[in-house]
Amino acid sequence: MPQDVGDLYCQIKQDKQIRLDAEFVCKAGEVLAVVGPSGGGKSTLLRMIAGLNHPESGVIRYGERDWFNDGDKIHLTPQQRHLGYVPQHFGLFPNLTALGNVVAALDHIPKAEREPRAKEWLERVNLDGLPDRLPANLSGGQRQRVALARALAREPSVLLLDEPFSAVDRETRERLYLELARLKSQLSIPVIMVTHDLNEALLLADNMILISQGKMLQQGIPHEVLTRPRTEAVAKQMGLRNIFDAYVIAQEEERQITWLKFGEHLIASTYFDSLEVGAKVRWVIPNQGIRFNSIKQRRLCRSFNKLEITIDSMLTMGETVRLIASVKGVKHQLHAEVPLHYSNKIGLAVGVVTEVAFKSELIHILEP
Amino acid sequence: MDWQALLLSVKLSSVTVLILIPFAIFVSRFLAYRQFRGKSWVEALIMVPLVLPPTVIGYYLLVGLGSQSWLGQTLESLFGHQLVFNFSGLVIASILVNIPFAIQPIQRSFEAVPEDVRDAAACCGMSRLKVLFKIELPMVWPGVLTALVLCFSHVLGEFGVVLMMGGNIAGETKTIAISIYDSVQAFDFASAGQMSLVLLIFAVTVLAFTTSLSRRMGAGHASRRR
Fold this sequence. Notes:
heterodimer; A: Rossmann fold; CATH 2.40.50.100; 10 helices; 21 strands; B: mainly alpha
């Protein structure tokens, strides 16, 4: 039977085997991405929500109903949780056709309705021409869609997707992104998607949690986690490489500026009221916060946060140039990515001395 | 050609596989999916009949199930007759000796069922029994068939255990292998030759069949992995 739509609350802690420590809520109608490096416990977390693994302790609650509660010794089976689960390799039943796979998940409705309902779902995922094919005769993208149709046809309380795009080629992946984005607007249940790809979280998720070595590091809107990582560990997990030391030298509440001393440079950042003057801080700047000076036109001449740099190395990767530069008066190196055409236009090359400017609003001070 | 012995052997093989294979399916599934303390000891125990001489197994069964033992007496009161030198005793002996032949191929097949598939089945709301019959058995049937064929042919050719446990009673415990031995003892080489040829042809056919099945099984797994 379809259940009333509710939020999913999850608080899990375990120390043995795979270490896990996480607490989060996934609201109905929301896509929550669980992001983190491989082997960090993401899939284990998903399996625990599905009821396929038992956590050592904690609570998993859907709406008002406990699915797992170690205190009250409640542990519902996957069958009792009535959820939709798409495993990493889709888990299609190889002996059943695409249609048979979807029908197999429809035990909760009368027998006569199952086949029409399954066909309807195959149509919804654009697979209406292939109901009689066995999984072995379907492409990766088609298999993924059968698995998605099978999970959704159950009218699940929660949809769980384990690395849903990792087993398909790039072109298929792009198409599936669009389909999931379209489907998302039609779903009113909590959707939890495990991924190691931050881009997928940015594209598809309303909210994300970052997990590393079993520990939940941060929860928030993906863009916010990317631009406002709470700690250095989060910043590193998010792929941010420009993490530097600085001292707070002044707080200007009126103008909402915190002044930092970075080597011999003065840096203006957005205001962080909790900081005391003289405190040593770690701060981070994402790539989009670094502006390069046009060497010929000197456009940055009136910008804030101007720094002189010398380009140490450049590596062209596709349409992007990755460069490492020394900052004058600071022992740190700056990492940046610049579109190839722009790099050519402004004349960046190894050995060139130029200027960059940091956008104040994108400078972020990390928690100690 | 001792038709009575051949028929008795076929009957013994059929009864053995009918009892053993369903039991082996459940045990193999358990061993394939579950991790528990002492698992390797259990697996080693299952394999014992492969390395122990059949006469040794036969000796223990004879002593263990004979009317002198506590177990033998209990079973005798339960069945109404003693188990040694009797067809039902032969069935018990054949089942015990063939456990590794039944469990090994089925366990390997269950181990090859991807975890993703089992997880998805559970999340589709299927009960364990339904998962077994609807999803797993269609995937592991080559293993089940291999086990069935191996056990059937192994029982058909069993000699040591049968001789120790059943003796040589025509129509009751005299199987084709014993009959061949008897014929040779009586210098009836024509009859022994005929029966041996039947067993040889059967063995080669069975081996060809199981080899082709395991190849098909390998191909099936490869296509599932694709």
